[in-house]
Design brief:
It contains 11 helices and 15 strands. By secondary structure, the chain is α/β, with parallel strands linked by helices. It has 2 domains: 191 residues, Quinone Oxidoreductase, Chain A, domain 1; 127 residues, 3-Layer(aba) Sandwich (Rossmann fold), CATH 3.40.50.720. Bound molecules: NADP nicotinamide-adenine-dinucleotide phosphate.
Length: 336
């Protein structure tokens, strides 16, 4: 079978296409023929060597969907012909994260899904929602689950709440769609006027251009009558976390998700202390979160936002496009 691997190196030339034997499923595994994978910022950061040192060669990419083409002798949850979405953290089935269940992750340290076939334990995935295309179904495990876990598992976002989504990448557009689904009002920040227009069309109530409003927290306070937002999902990290703290109401929540700006966060803690702001780190979520997300998308008929789809042969171009920051939502690679 054809597979991409990351070889040593920190640029796109480290991503190489090669041949490996097709794997055989064990008694409780299914054999998936991959149909689509989606990229996350993590995939680029691993390639660049800024996300920890996983041993190489490594099959990259955490998220995807495939068709079950064979099942092991003891498999009960899936049949040949089903579409399965593997969980990014295969051992985390439900409940809070634990040391022993959070360690193994697809796309590093475990081999990922940018390959024609993969064996997956039957417990480590869910059935893909029928209303989603392959490209859409491939976007759920990291971006969708992280947004779900941030809004509903760690917090209880509901009608009447105001949520701030930062930028218009994969996680943030799921935040927009899921918070809207829960009846919340969503404010979106972006560096692009055109992307803000698209976010409004997706259901955001207001867009804040960070070029026009570099101090976007002040704008959030204006748009909330001085109260502040209930919840900010921070994907940028860096010194900007101070603005997220400033943007939330007394007792509000800042979810720390990402580090697009910087992985080093420095801010004056006093505003957070005096306004009793809850700072909540999130590291994706469990299979239960993935299942709950899939159910909600099905019930509401919501489709994740896929910006561009690249063919398998052009996977390096997909990585380059994600890294450019030009995307609105998810970047997907489909298989022949
Ligand atoms: N903790 C977790 O479980 C978890 C899960 C998923 C992702 N993450 C992390 O969350 C971050 C976002 O991931 P993603 O996959 O959603 O990324 P992505 O799809 O690549 O999104 C990038 C978008 O964020 C905005 N952006 C880029 N640089 C920015 C900056 N310096 N400040 C503010 N906004 C910026 C841009 O939107 P505009 O052009 O509209 O401004 C860009 O399109 C990454 O750091 C990733 O590692 C963490």
């Amino acid at each position: 079978m054809k597979t991409y691997v990351l070889n040593p190196g920190n640029d796109l030339s480290a991503l190489q296409l090669t041949e490996r034997p097709r794997p055989e499923p064990g008694p409780r595994e299914v054999l998936l023929r991959l149909r689509a994978v989606s990229l996350n910022y993590r995939d680029v950061a691993i390639l660049r060597g800024t996300y920890g040192a996983f041993s190489r060669p490594l099959v990259p990419v955490s998220d995807g969907v495939g068709e079950v083409v064979a099942v092991g002798s003891d498999v009960q949850r899936f049949r040949v012909g089903d579409r399965m979405i593997p969980s990014y953290v295969p051992d985390w089935i439900r409940g809070p994260p634990r040391e022993d269940t959070a360690r193994r992750r697809l796309g590093g340290p475990l081999d990922g899904l940018l390959r024609e076939y993969a064996c997956v334990h039957e417990d480590a995935g869910i059935a893909a929602p029928p209303h989603l295309s392959d490209a859409e179904a491939a976007t759920l495990p990291i971006a969708g689950v992280t947004a779900w876990h941030a809004l509903f598992t760690q917090a209880h976002v509901g009608p009447g709440d105001t949520v701030v989504a930062q930028g218009t990448g994969g996680v943030s557009l799921f935040v927009v769609q899921l918070a809207r689904m829960a009846g919340a009002r969503v404010l979106v920040t972006s560096r692009s006027e055109a992307k803000l227009g698209r976010a409004l069309a997706l259901g955001a109530a207001e867009g804040i251009h960070t070029g026009t409003h570099p101090d976007w927290a002040t704008r959030v306070r204006e748009l909330t009558g001085g109260r502040g937002a209930d919840h900010v999902v921070d994907v940028a990290g860096g010194d900007g976390v101070a603005r997220s703290v400033e943007a939330v109401r007394m007792g509000g929540t800042v979810t720390l998700v990402g580090f697009l700006e910087s992985a080093t966060v420095r801010f004056d803690i006093r505003p957070a202390l005096s306004r009793v702001v809850r700072l909540q780190a999130v590291s994706t979520g469990s299979r239960d979160d993935l299942e709950a997300l899939a159910r909600a998308l099905t019930v509401h008929g919501v489709h994740p936002v896929v910006d561009r789809v690249f063919p398998f042969a052009q996977a390096p171009d997909a990585f380059a496009f994600l890294e450019s920051g030009a995307q609105f939502g998810k970047v997907v690679i489909t298989f022949p």
